[in-house]
C-alpha cells in the first residue's frame, strides 16, 4: 500500500535536569556525558542520520549551549588539528558538525516528554517525525529506526519501539497491550499502561525511547491533560491514538542491543560494553576485564 508523505524529521528531547548524575550535570546536560569518547547525544543523532533523516531538532534546557556548540563547526580547533597534520581527529571533529541540519528549541519548563514533543510543533509542521530519547542508545549494528520508518510508511500510523523485559523489571516501564498483525515483530498496540505492577502488566513488552509519529499527534497533545507528576505524558496521547480506529498505534519489537545510559550503573555498563566491542580498544580491554573480574 505505502503512504506518500513529506520527509521524516527527527526530534531529540534533551532538556531533562540529569539530577542522577550531579555534580557532573550541574553545568552540562546529561546528554553530553561521554560514552567512551562521544557524547551520548551524538550516537542518537548518528542513528537518525543513518536511517536517512537529515533534519534534526534538539529540544534543549537551560544548559543548551554545550549541545549547540558540539554540533557547530569549530574553525580554530580544525585549523590547529590541520596544522598538526592530525587528520584522524580532524575528521572526527568535522564529522559531528557535518552530520545533519541541526536545530535547537528551548523547552522552558520541563513539563514532561509530551510537552517537549509539543515544543517541536512549529519546526516539524506537517511532516511525520521520529522521537529519539538519549537515554536509550541502540547499537548501530542492530536495525530499529529503519524498521520503524518502514512500518510507518506501510501503515501511516504511529509506531513505537518495544522490547521484551524481565517481568521483575516491568514496573519500571510503560507497557503495551498488543495483538499480532501477521508480520513478525510488528504488533498492533491496543493500550498502554505506565509502570504497572507485575500482576497488572498486559504483556512483557516495554516501551523504549524510539517513536515514529504522524503530525496529528500535536493536536492530541494539545488537549492531553497533565498526567503523572503534573507532566504532559506522550504515553497518554499515544493511548488516545491507540483507542481511535482511524489513527491506531503499532509496535516494532526490538531484539538487538540497547544500552541504557539513564542510570549510573547502566551508564557504566554501556561504556564497558561499547568499549569492549571497539576494534581500537577491545583487544587491550578484553583481557584486562577478565583479569579484573577474577579479582572481584
UniProtKB/TrEMBL annotation:
It holds the Pfam family NTP_transferase. It is an enzyme of class 2 (transferase). The keyword Nucleotidyltransferase applies. One of its GO terms (molecular function) is nucleotidyltransferase activity. Keywords: Nucleotidyltransferase, Transferase. It catalyses: alpha-D-glucose 1-phosphate + UTP + H(+) = UDP-alpha-D-glucose + diphosphate. CDD domains: UGPase_prokaryotic. Its EC number is 2.7.7.9. The keyword NAD does not apply. Residues 9-274 form the Nucleotidyl transferase domain. Belongs to the UDPGP type 2 family. NCBIfam families: galU (TIGR01099). PANTHER family: UTP--GLUCOSE-1-PHOSPHATE URIDYLYLTRANSFERASE. This is UTP--glucose-1-phosphate uridylyltransferase. The gene is galU.
